[in-house]
């Protein structure tokens, strides 16, 4: 992990989207008046005729995306996660998921790491909302390399897709030659004291915790669960069998997110006690992103302390 090099996954999204536009003429991009923040403006500058700013009308954003998909285009629809998953939920459910249209919803500024925008803009329920929808695939990439791979990969998948992206710049975890696969998690280390399942911005925090714990002779493995749906059941069961403790950590509510997803698998396949770290059924707060990670106890120090407590 390159702690010195930090890139926000929303930036990675914008850069890769422009590259994808060069390769695939069927790719079109829509935004709801936030293109400078979601970074779709990079695509817009290169392909102005294939970009549409629909204005502050997120429900219309999804409706237009559905129409374009029905005519064979591959629309990438972007806005903040709170507006994408929240304000436009009805359109996503009935106009995109029900007819199984090929719309790629790439929602930025998710979680408490939106920071100073505060509770109204800190979307903590989107993974829960999106993964319950039939036909919807859900992803939460952890770094620049993984995000760029994912943005190109989902263009090859037929059907609705939700990608959760962050505002906060986070360390680059992977090398350029790292292999990824939809529905398959990435395991870092083979420690048997505990498994830390993490997603999005908390993967880097978990890897930092792993390094600190090694100094105290506590050996954990960190599993990057970037694919929330489909989820890697085999990896979850394997880790439950091989390690003493199971922890999940996410910049999301513990209700319905990664923690719930892992618990659902284990309840059916290999009953195991799980410690869920995340936002505990609360709204967010205004503050700097790093401060909020500490406040809600999902930073590297809190993760390490939780492992030691267990």
3D architecture notes:
The chain has 2 domains: 2-172, 3-Layer(aba) Sandwich (Rossmann fold); 186-309, Rossmann fold (3-Layer(aba) Sandwich). Helices cover 40% and strands 22% of the residues. It has 13 helices and 14 strands. It has helices at residues 9-23, 35-38, 41-46, 58-70, 81-87, 89-97, 126-131, 144-153, 202-215, 233-242, 258-269, 289-295, 300-309, and strands at 2-8, 27-31, 51-53, 74-80, 104-108, 137-139, 161-164, 169-172, 186-188, 194-198, 220-224, 227-229, 245-253, 274-279. The strands form 3 sheets. The chain has a 7-stranded mixed beta sheet with strand order 3-2-4-5-7-6-12, sandwiched between helices. Helix 1 (9-23) runs parallel beside helix 8 and helix 4 (58-70) packs parallel to helix 6. It is globular.
Question: Strands, helices and their partners?
Answer:
Layout: E1 2-8, H1 9-23, E2 27-31, H2 35-38, H3 41-46, E3 51-53, H4 58-70, E4 74-80, H5 81-87, H6 89-97, E5 104-108, H7 126-131, E6 137-139, H8 144-153, E7 161-164, E8 169-172, E9 186-188, E10 194-198, H9 202-215, E11 220-224, E12 227-229, H10 233-242, E13 245-253, H11 258-269, E14 274-279, H12 289-295, H13 300-309
Helix pairs in contact: 1-8, 4-6, 9-13, 10-11
In short:
With 310 residues, this protein is an alpha/beta fold.
Classified by CATH, the class of the largest domain is Alpha Beta
Q: Nearest-angstrom radius of gyration?
A: 18 Å
Globally, the shape reads globular
Counting DSSP E segments of at least 2 residues, the number of strands comes to 14
């Amino acid at each position: 992990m390159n702690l010195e090099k930090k890139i926000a996954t929303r930036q990675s999204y914008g850069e890769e989207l422009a590259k994808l536009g060069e390769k695939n003429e069927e790719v079109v991009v829509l935004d709801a008046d936030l293109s400078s923040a979601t970074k779709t403006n990079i695509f817009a500058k290169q392909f102005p005729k294939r970009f549409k700013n629909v204005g502050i009308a997120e429900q219309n954003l999804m409706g237009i995306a559905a129409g374009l998909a029905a005519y064979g285009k591959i629309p990438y629809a972007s806005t903040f996660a709170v507006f994408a998953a929240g304000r436009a939920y009805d359109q996503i459910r009935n106009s995109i998921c029900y007819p199984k249209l090929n719309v790629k919803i790439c929602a930025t500024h998710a979680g408490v790491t939106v920071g100073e925008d505060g509770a109204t803009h800190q979307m903590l329920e989107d993974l829960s909302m999106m993964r319950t929808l039939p036909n919807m695939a859900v992803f939460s990439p952890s770094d620049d390399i993984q995000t760029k791979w994912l943005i190109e990969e989902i263009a090859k998948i037929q059907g609705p897709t939700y990608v959760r992206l962050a505002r906060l710049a986070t360390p680059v975890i992977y090398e350029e030659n790292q292999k990824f696969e939809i529905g398959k998690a990435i395991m870092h280390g083979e420690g048997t004291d505990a498994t830390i399942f993490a997603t999005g911005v908390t993967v880097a925090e978990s890897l930092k915790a792993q390094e600190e714990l090694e100094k105290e002779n506590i050996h954990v493995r960190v599993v990057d669960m970037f694919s929330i749906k489909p989820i890697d059941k085999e990896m979850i069961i394997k880790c439950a069998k091989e390690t003493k403790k199971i922890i999940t950590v996410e910049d999301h509510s513990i209700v319905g997110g990664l923690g719930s997803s892992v618990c659902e698998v284990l309840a059916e396949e290999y009953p195991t006690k799980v410690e869920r770290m995340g936002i505990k059924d609360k709204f967010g707060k205004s503050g700097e992103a790093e401060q909020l990670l500490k406040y809600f106890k999902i930073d590297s120090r809190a993760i390490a302390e939780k492992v030691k407590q267990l």
